[in-house]
Amino acid sequence: MSIIVDLSLFPIGKEESLSRYASRAVKIIKESGLAYQIGPMGTAIEGEWDEVMGVVKRCMEDLRKDCRRIYMTMKVDCREGDTGRIPKKVKAVGG
After folding, report:
1. pTM for the full predicted model
2. What is the pLDDT of residues 72-89, one digit of tens each?
3. 2: which DSSP letter?
4. 14: alpha, beta or left, given left = phi > 0 and alpha = psi -120 to 50?
5. Do residues 15 and 53 make contact, with C-beta atoms less than 8 angstroms apart?
6. From CA 52, how far away is CA 18, in angstroms rounded?
7. What are the domain boundaries of the chain?
8. 2-92: which CATH topology?
9. How far apart are CA 64 and CA 49, in angstroms?
């Protein structure tokens, strides 16, 4: 089953700009080899359930190294069979 997860995670109680933490997560996502698209408030990741959840876990574990509190949101879209849906979904709404 293919899933798309829209992931947003960041530490609480750190400085105002959190881009250095977000970029750590994006590096992990890139290195996973899964399809992804960065957005202004999160990153969409596409793959099989276990693959994507493994990447989410690695992102969380990386931030936990130096962040005592982390806020995370995930939206998940599951669909049988279809892949390559991130660009299709963006195109379908005129993006």
Report:
1. 0.90
2. 999 999 998 778 888 888
3. E
4. beta
5. no
6. 23
7. 2-92
8. Alpha-Beta Plaits (3.30.70)
9. 22
